[in-house]
Every structure is written in C-alpha cells, then in structure tokens.
Amino acid sequence: MYINLDERLQLILNMLNEYGEGYLVGGALRDIFLGLKPKDFDMATNIPMEELLHILNEYNPIIISEKYQVISIQVDEFKIEIARFRKESGVLDGRNPKNFYFVENIEEDLSRRDFTVNALAYNNNKGLIDKYSSLKDIENLELNIIGEDKVLRFAEDNTRIYRALYLISKYNFKLSNETKNAILSFKNHKKLNVSISGFGKLLDKILFDKYSYKSLKIMLECNLFKSFIPELSTNNLDDETIKKIVNIYNVYCKYNVFEDKTIGYAIIFLYSGKKIDDDCKYLVNSMVISETYLKKIGFNITDIILVKNLIYYSNIISRTINKETVKRMLFEFRNNKNVSKLLNFISFIHHNQGDYNEAVKKTLELLGRIQAIYFEGEVVFINDLDINLVDLYNIGLDLNISKESIRQDIYKQVNEGKLNNKKEDIINYIKERYSIKYDIDKVCSSGGIVYRINKDNKIEFLLVKILGGNWGFPKGHIEENETEIMTAIREIKEETNLETVIVDSDKFKKDISYITNMGELKYVTFFIAKATSHNVLIDLGEISEYKWCNYNDALKIVTYSSQRRLLQEARLYIFN
Hints:
576 residues, Beta Polymerase, domain 2, cca-adding enzyme, domain 2, 4 domains, 8-stranded mixed sheet, 23 helices, 43% helix, globular, magnesium, RNA-binding, Tetra_PHTase, transferase
C-alpha cells in the first residue's frame, strides 16, 4: 500500500532510511486512515540518538528522553517525534516498564504499542506494516490491547486505560470485550499509579469531546474514579444514579458546550454527595466534594464557585422560592452569562426525563421573576453596580481592605434602597464609610467610536493604544466653550489625523464613568463617528499605535469592558 505523504514528512523518512530504517508510526497513521489530517507525527528508527542528532542537525532537534532515545523536531507546522526501536517487558510501577532494550527491527518495536489501532508502521520501501490487523480495527472503530495477557499490558502502564477512554471520546471507538474485561479487572484495584494533578489533566482530555459520555459511563461502571474521588465510586453511586449522570452528560455532549468545563464538572459532581438509598438533601455535600477535588487539580477559585453554585441551584425550579431567593441566586451568579449556564444545566438535567415540559414551564416562570426584578429597576447582578474593581483600586483605599467585600456591601446598600446606584453617590458612601479624606476631582471628556467601510464593503473600527498600555477609542478633555460633539471631532483629528462626521448624535450618545489611576472621577461621552478621510497619522505624544479591526477582533482587543459594551451597542446601531 502506498500513502501519499506530505513531501516534508517524506523527506525526513528518506533521511532516516538513508542511514538506517525509519517508519511513520502510531496515531498519525491511525488518523490518516480515519480521514483526518494530523499535525503531530511519530516516527521510529533503529538509528542511535547521537547519530540521529547529527543527521537532523539542520532542524534543531530537541532531546525528549535520553533514556529512551527520543527526539523532537519541528518542520513548519508539523511536530515530529522520533524514537529508537525498543522492546519492553515487566511491571515496574504501573507507569514504566521494568526492563527495556533497543532492537533492530520495527516488528519488535510495534509489540510494545498499546492498541492495535496505534500499531501501524509505514515507509515507501516496505509499504504498510500491519502486524495486528490494525486496519480492520480502525474500520470497525474497535479498541484491542496488544498482547496475550491484556491485564498485564494495562498493569505495565495504567495510563493506557485513560488513553483508551480518550480514543473513545474523540473518535467514537468502542472497547472489544477482551479489552473491557481487562479494564474491569482494575475495578477494585486500590490505586492506579497516576497523581491527582495528572488525573485532572487526563480528565480534561477525556471528558470534553463529542463522545465523552461513553467514556464517562465506562469510568463510572469500572470504578476508575475510586482512587481519586471516592465519592464517585460504585460504593457510593448505585446503577440508577450512574445512569442519570451519563444521560445528563450525553445531552451536554450533544450540545457541544465544551468551552465551558464548569457545566461538565457540575454534572459529574451533582450526585457525588448522595449515598446509596439516601434521599435526604445532598447538594451541599456535593458542593463540598466538588470544591475539595477541583482545588487539588488547580481549578481557579472563580470556576470552583461557579460549579458549586450550579450544583446548589440545580433544583431551584422545584423549590418554593420568593423574590429574595431569586435575588440571592442572581447575586451568587454575578452576571447574565452565568445565569444562562444554570438554565442550560437545568435543561440538561431534565432533557430526557418525563418531566421535561413541566421543567420548561417552571424555567420560564423563573425567567419571568428575574425579568420582573429588572423592570423594577433593581440592581440584579453585582456587576451591574456603577463601580467596578478597577475603580476601587484607583480610589485610594487601603490595600488591606477587601475590594470584593466592599462591592458586596455596596450591592446590599443599593438593593435595600439606602444608596443610589450612581458612581458619584457610591464614591461619597465609600469616602464616609472608609474615612477617605481627600476630594476626588471630576473631569469631563468626549470621544468617538470611529468606523469606516473598507474596500470589501465591510465595517472596520479604529482602535488606538494609549501610551501606557490600554486599547480603546479616541477621546480627550472638553475645552472651554466646546460642545461634546466639537470635542469628539477635534480629539479624533488630533490623535489620528482623520476627518470624521458624527452619526445621529441625537439618537446615539453614550456616557461612561470611571476612576482614573490618578484618582479622578472621569465622565466620557461617546458618539459614533464615520471616517471621511483615509490617512491615519497618530499623535505619538498620546498614542503608541492604532489598528483598523473587524468587529470580532476589536471586541477581543479593547481593554475595558465598558468600552466593549459601547462597541457592541455602536455596531448594533450602525447595522440597524
């Protein structure tokens, strides 16, 4: 069989076969036969490493392992690892072989591979070497462990179990009966030789792909969580609970929301606090368990809090709640995005249940309650406060005072009607509450969200980088006898040399305010400004660089959230 490889890969293989033997091996070949285009490639050779380093010197090879004689090179976009042929035997620690020695032929090297689907080898001289019926298993999407003693092969390297799960999650492979039985033999194994942090990294690879629910089912049924999260072992979860978890995770995978792993982990830990035959309240226990584990694998505190809140409020539509409960929930979730995650989570839980229609009805009722709070003009989320953490840092508070606790205090004062949600009023409250003696000066500025229509008839926005670092829009102080519009046009001209016209100033005029790092309270009025000239010449005394960007790129580049919101509103207005 001939495989038409990229000429750059073929060149490396030719170099190996000029000085010895070299083959393309492993997962890249598997992916090619699955119709995919790999970027990472493994090669195997009988050439000793010192000689190999000399042969491939022009590619600046990096030594990955002196012990096993493995090097890595980068050829344009291709990463290539090249290992010397070797054979392995014996169980050392569940991670490394007891013995290994270098060999001269590829067939012996292939015998140490994990699964048949990863045991192909190819070069132009010998064609495809398929010693273990690998092509058949790839075609059938079946995982077979290599070797007569299947249990021994997993004992040699415990991570082979997790590599099997990864292949299931990513490619929809299934375990052969022999391979599954070998994994089941580890069900009551006291400990697999993987660290807790290593286990966390493995989970990240296994649990967030199209078919991950199938891997999760195997992990739960085969007790593979036992060594790391005992609460997810079969001693604590009955068959019905495992089925629930897998069904919910199936829906999560179906809707492909893997960019947010918090929902995935909330599903996994949802029933972790529920003992067999225990119908009492368990959500608080599940929260504690999730926090304990997620801290160990290095989850950041913000995501841990979100996972805990998702678990705690997962049954909110089934509770008897009042307005204060809803407000408390909104406070905990901090913003609309996180509330949307909760609603998705609730939908996933009830999706395949007989009560789905009733759950939808109750979810809509909850949304109605949230909307009513909005219409009453109340501050819904802590992030809706007219003061943010940057303001609090710039206001001159003692560094030992918790800025987050101050925001929580302000949120409470505003929601109890004791304080207006206006920056100036909030600042006065903080000055009195925390004994700030100096006056905060007010400064007024004006600027423009500048756009143009490019040659492809697409809208682009002009961003400028202020000396000192942040990206945003041209703006500056309002001078004596100037209107806000006059200032916006002048500042755009002075900072960028562009001529502009203000668009619908009576309909689009947006104000933001913030505390500068000089401790000033700055009010800025922004208009939409359409560029009528083309040559940008920045004022290097104020601006370090500029960019014309499409909307999506601009949204990523603009530094402050207040100006990102302005950009969103401006784009919407321009299109309408």
